[in-house]
Automatic annotation (TrEMBL):
This is Uncharacterized protein. It comes from Candolleomyces eurysporus. It comes from the Eukaryota. InterPro entries: LRR_dom_sf (IPR032675).
Amino acid sequence: MFIYAKRVRVLNLQQGPNKSSSTPSVSPQTYIFIATELEGRPLFPALQKIIMQTAPDLTDEFAPIPLIFTSSVQDVTFQGQDLSNGLSVHYCLPLVGERLASLRRLALSSNEEDIEASTFDAILQLTNLESLDIQLPQAKDPIPEFLAKAGRALKKLSSLTIDLHFSSHEVPTVDVLLAKWKTCPPSQSTLRILAIRDHRNPLSFTNREYNDIAQLLDLMFPSLVSIKPYCEADEDKPYWKDHWWFIEHLRLSTVHVLPLAFF
Protein backbone atom coordinates (compact mmCIF):
# COMPACT_ATOMS: atom_id res chain seq x y z
CA MET A 1 0.00 0.00 0.00
CA PHE A 2 2.76 2.44 0.93
CA ILE A 3 4.40 1.97 -2.49
CA TYR A 4 1.26 3.24 -4.23
CA ALA A 5 0.81 5.98 -1.64
CA LYS A 6 3.98 7.60 -2.93
CA ARG A 7 2.24 8.24 -6.25
CA VAL A 8 -0.76 10.11 -4.82
CA ARG A 9 -0.84 13.80 -5.76
CA VAL A 10 -4.50 14.74 -5.06
CA LEU A 11 -6.58 13.49 -2.12
CA ASN A 12 -10.33 14.11 -2.18
CA LEU A 13 -12.02 13.41 1.16
CA GLN A 14 -15.47 14.67 0.21
CA GLN A 15 -18.46 12.63 1.31
CA GLY A 16 -20.14 10.52 -1.33
CA PRO A 17 -23.88 10.99 -1.99
CA ASN A 18 -24.77 7.70 -0.29
CA LYS A 19 -22.47 7.98 2.71
CA SER A 20 -24.09 8.03 6.13
CA SER A 21 -22.90 10.98 8.21
CA SER A 22 -22.95 8.79 11.33
CA THR A 23 -20.63 6.10 10.02
CA PRO A 24 -16.95 6.82 9.28
CA SER A 25 -15.59 5.44 6.02
CA VAL A 26 -12.51 4.15 7.81
CA SER A 27 -12.24 3.18 11.44
CA PRO A 28 -10.02 5.59 13.45
CA GLN A 29 -8.15 2.54 14.73
CA THR A 30 -6.97 1.95 11.17
CA TYR A 31 -5.27 5.34 11.14
CA ILE A 32 -3.57 4.54 14.42
CA PHE A 33 -2.24 1.31 12.95
CA ILE A 34 -0.99 3.09 9.82
CA ALA A 35 0.69 5.80 11.90
CA THR A 36 2.48 3.13 13.92
CA GLU A 37 3.73 1.44 10.78
CA LEU A 38 4.93 4.73 9.27
CA GLU A 39 7.01 5.63 12.34
CA GLY A 40 6.63 9.36 11.78
CA ARG A 41 6.92 9.34 8.00
CA PRO A 42 4.13 10.93 5.89
CA LEU A 43 1.57 8.59 4.36
CA PHE A 44 1.55 10.48 1.03
CA PRO A 45 5.03 12.00 0.70
CA ALA A 46 4.33 13.55 -2.73
CA LEU A 47 0.80 14.82 -1.98
CA GLN A 48 0.10 18.27 -3.42
CA LYS A 49 -3.64 18.91 -3.05
CA ILE A 50 -6.23 18.05 -0.37
CA ILE A 51 -10.00 18.55 -0.58
CA MET A 52 -11.88 17.99 2.68
CA GLN A 53 -15.58 18.17 3.41
CA THR A 54 -16.43 18.74 7.04
CA ALA A 55 -19.29 16.81 8.64
CA PRO A 56 -21.34 17.14 11.85
CA ASP A 57 -18.99 14.74 13.68
CA LEU A 58 -15.48 15.86 12.84
CA THR A 59 -13.78 13.39 15.16
CA ASP A 60 -13.83 10.74 12.46
CA GLU A 61 -13.49 13.10 9.50
CA PHE A 62 -10.31 14.69 10.85
CA ALA A 63 -8.72 11.50 12.16
CA PRO A 64 -6.38 11.12 9.14
CA ILE A 65 -5.16 14.73 9.23
CA PRO A 66 -1.86 14.04 11.04
CA LEU A 67 -1.08 11.45 8.37
CA ILE A 68 -1.91 13.52 5.29
CA PHE A 69 -0.67 16.97 6.29
CA THR A 70 2.79 16.84 4.80
CA SER A 71 5.16 19.60 3.73
CA SER A 72 4.66 18.81 0.03
CA VAL A 73 1.00 19.95 0.07
CA GLN A 74 0.45 23.24 -1.76
CA ASP A 75 -3.34 23.41 -2.14
CA VAL A 76 -6.03 22.80 0.53
CA THR A 77 -9.81 23.17 0.30
CA PHE A 78 -12.16 22.93 3.28
CA GLN A 79 -15.86 22.90 2.55
CA GLY A 80 -18.98 21.89 4.40
CA GLN A 81 -21.28 22.87 7.21
CA ASP A 82 -19.03 22.59 10.25
CA LEU A 83 -16.14 24.97 9.72
CA SER A 84 -17.18 26.61 13.00
CA ASN A 85 -16.56 23.38 14.89
CA GLY A 86 -13.84 23.66 17.53
CA LEU A 87 -11.76 21.00 15.79
CA SER A 88 -11.72 23.07 12.60
CA VAL A 89 -10.83 26.36 14.26
CA HIS A 90 -8.50 25.30 17.06
CA TYR A 91 -6.95 22.14 15.65
CA CYS A 92 -7.18 21.85 11.90
CA LEU A 93 -6.31 25.38 10.75
CA PRO A 94 -3.42 25.81 13.23
CA LEU A 95 -2.10 22.43 12.09
CA VAL A 96 -2.19 23.70 8.51
CA GLY A 97 0.14 26.52 9.50
CA GLU A 98 2.40 24.18 11.45
CA ARG A 99 2.66 21.28 9.00
CA LEU A 100 2.09 22.78 5.55
CA ALA A 101 5.01 25.14 5.17
CA SER A 102 4.73 25.05 1.38
CA LEU A 103 0.98 25.82 1.26
CA ARG A 104 0.26 28.26 -1.56
CA ARG A 105 -3.52 28.01 -2.07
CA LEU A 106 -6.29 27.87 0.53
CA ALA A 107 -10.05 27.76 -0.05
CA LEU A 108 -12.82 27.81 2.57
CA SER A 109 -16.45 27.32 1.60
CA SER A 110 -19.51 27.06 3.85
CA ASN A 111 -23.05 28.39 4.24
CA GLU A 112 -22.80 28.41 8.03
CA GLU A 113 -23.66 31.51 10.01
CA ASP A 114 -21.54 30.93 13.12
CA ILE A 115 -17.98 31.21 11.87
CA GLU A 116 -15.61 32.11 14.70
CA ALA A 117 -13.53 35.26 14.35
CA SER A 118 -10.46 33.19 15.21
CA THR A 119 -10.90 31.44 11.86
CA PHE A 120 -9.77 34.63 10.15
CA ASP A 121 -6.89 35.07 12.59
CA ALA A 122 -5.69 31.57 11.72
CA ILE A 123 -5.71 32.40 8.02
CA LEU A 124 -3.48 35.42 8.62
CA GLN A 125 -0.79 33.10 10.01
CA LEU A 126 -0.41 31.38 6.62
CA THR A 127 2.08 33.92 5.34
CA ASN A 128 3.18 31.93 2.28
CA LEU A 129 -0.27 31.94 0.69
CA GLU A 130 -0.42 33.08 -2.92
CA SER A 131 -4.12 32.40 -3.49
CA LEU A 132 -6.97 32.74 -0.98
CA ASP A 133 -10.62 31.94 -1.71
CA ILE A 134 -13.10 32.51 1.14
CA GLN A 135 -16.76 31.79 0.41
CA LEU A 136 -18.66 32.31 3.67
CA PRO A 137 -21.70 34.32 2.51
CA GLN A 138 -23.82 33.63 5.61
CA ALA A 139 -21.14 34.23 8.24
CA LYS A 140 -22.45 36.61 10.90
CA ASP A 141 -19.22 37.84 12.44
CA PRO A 142 -16.49 38.31 9.85
CA ILE A 143 -13.93 40.89 10.93
CA PRO A 144 -14.31 44.08 8.87
CA GLU A 145 -10.58 44.73 9.13
CA PHE A 146 -9.73 41.29 7.75
CA LEU A 147 -9.14 42.56 4.22
CA ALA A 148 -6.72 45.22 5.42
CA LYS A 149 -4.94 42.77 7.71
CA ALA A 150 -4.65 40.26 4.88
CA GLY A 151 -3.06 42.93 2.72
CA ARG A 152 -0.38 43.48 5.36
CA ALA A 153 0.19 39.94 6.63
CA LEU A 154 -0.10 37.86 3.45
CA LYS A 155 2.62 39.58 1.48
CA LYS A 156 2.90 36.84 -1.14
CA LEU A 157 -0.83 36.82 -1.91
CA SER A 158 -1.48 37.41 -5.61
CA SER A 159 -5.10 36.24 -5.93
CA LEU A 160 -7.92 36.98 -3.48
CA THR A 161 -11.56 35.91 -3.80
CA ILE A 162 -13.89 36.77 -0.93
CA ASP A 163 -17.62 36.31 -0.39
CA LEU A 164 -18.20 37.85 3.03
CA HIS A 165 -20.88 40.19 4.32
CA PHE A 166 -20.28 42.77 7.02
CA SER A 167 -22.95 44.49 9.08
CA SER A 168 -23.13 48.08 7.88
CA HIS A 169 -22.65 49.50 11.38
CA GLU A 170 -19.37 47.62 11.76
CA VAL A 171 -17.66 48.84 8.61
CA PRO A 172 -15.87 52.20 8.60
CA THR A 173 -16.88 54.54 5.79
CA VAL A 174 -14.69 54.67 2.71
CA ASP A 175 -13.43 58.18 3.45
CA VAL A 176 -12.35 57.13 6.95
CA LEU A 177 -10.52 54.09 5.60
CA LEU A 178 -8.84 56.15 2.89
CA ALA A 179 -7.65 58.76 5.37
CA LYS A 180 -6.26 56.02 7.60
CA TRP A 181 -4.41 54.28 4.78
CA LYS A 182 -2.88 57.54 3.59
CA THR A 183 -1.10 57.80 6.94
CA CYS A 184 0.04 54.16 7.03
CA PRO A 185 3.42 52.89 5.84
CA PRO A 186 3.33 51.71 2.21
CA SER A 187 1.63 48.36 1.82
CA GLN A 188 3.86 45.39 1.03
CA SER A 189 1.01 43.39 -0.49
CA THR A 190 1.75 41.59 -3.76
CA LEU A 191 -1.92 40.92 -4.52
CA ARG A 192 -2.48 41.09 -8.28
CA ILE A 193 -6.07 39.88 -8.78
CA LEU A 194 -9.12 40.75 -6.66
CA ALA A 195 -12.47 39.06 -7.35
CA ILE A 196 -15.44 40.85 -5.84
CA ARG A 197 -19.21 40.57 -5.49
CA ASP A 198 -21.38 43.28 -3.96
CA HIS A 199 -24.65 42.08 -2.39
CA ARG A 200 -25.90 45.37 -0.98
CA ASN A 201 -29.44 46.31 -1.85
CA PRO A 202 -30.05 48.99 -2.85
CA LEU A 203 -26.58 49.49 -4.28
CA SER A 204 -25.44 53.06 -4.72
CA PHE A 205 -22.25 55.12 -4.69
CA THR A 206 -21.60 58.83 -4.64
CA ASN A 207 -19.14 60.23 -7.17
CA ARG A 208 -16.63 60.72 -4.39
CA GLU A 209 -17.01 57.13 -3.20
CA TYR A 210 -16.18 55.81 -6.66
CA ASN A 211 -12.95 57.77 -6.61
CA ASP A 212 -12.13 57.04 -2.96
CA ILE A 213 -12.57 53.29 -3.41
CA ALA A 214 -10.28 53.32 -6.44
CA GLN A 215 -7.62 55.17 -4.43
CA LEU A 216 -8.08 52.92 -1.41
CA LEU A 217 -7.58 49.75 -3.42
CA ASP A 218 -4.37 51.12 -4.91
CA LEU A 219 -3.06 51.98 -1.45
CA MET A 220 -3.97 48.60 0.01
CA PHE A 221 -2.78 46.58 -2.97
CA PRO A 222 -0.08 48.50 -4.86
CA SER A 223 0.63 45.54 -7.17
CA LEU A 224 -3.02 45.05 -8.11
CA VAL A 225 -3.40 44.32 -11.82
CA SER A 226 -7.15 43.85 -12.04
CA ILE A 227 -10.44 43.70 -10.19
CA LYS A 228 -12.92 41.28 -11.67
CA PRO A 229 -16.44 40.05 -10.93
CA TYR A 230 -16.74 37.13 -8.56
CA CYS A 231 -17.42 34.81 -11.49
CA GLU A 232 -17.82 35.20 -15.24
CA ALA A 233 -21.60 34.89 -14.95
CA ASP A 234 -21.63 38.11 -12.90
CA GLU A 235 -20.27 40.29 -15.70
CA ASP A 236 -23.79 41.41 -16.63
CA LYS A 237 -25.06 41.88 -13.09
CA PRO A 238 -25.75 45.46 -11.94
CA TYR A 239 -23.17 45.45 -9.14
CA TRP A 240 -20.43 44.94 -11.70
CA LYS A 241 -21.53 46.58 -14.95
CA ASP A 242 -23.07 49.65 -13.25
CA HIS A 243 -20.61 50.23 -10.42
CA TRP A 244 -17.48 48.16 -9.87
CA TRP A 245 -16.53 48.17 -13.53
CA PHE A 246 -16.40 51.96 -13.28
CA ILE A 247 -14.27 51.78 -10.13
CA GLU A 248 -11.83 49.53 -11.96
CA HIS A 249 -11.86 51.94 -14.91
CA LEU A 250 -11.02 54.83 -12.59
CA ARG A 251 -8.26 52.85 -10.94
CA LEU A 252 -6.65 51.89 -14.24
CA SER A 253 -6.95 55.38 -15.68
CA THR A 254 -5.41 57.09 -12.65
CA VAL A 255 -2.35 59.10 -13.60
CA HIS A 256 0.39 58.82 -11.00
CA VAL A 257 2.34 62.07 -11.02
CA LEU A 258 6.00 61.72 -10.16
CA PRO A 259 7.77 64.63 -8.43
CA LEU A 260 10.23 66.43 -10.67
CA ALA A 261 13.30 68.34 -9.60
CA PHE A 262 14.64 71.18 -11.71
CA PHE A 263 18.20 72.40 -11.44
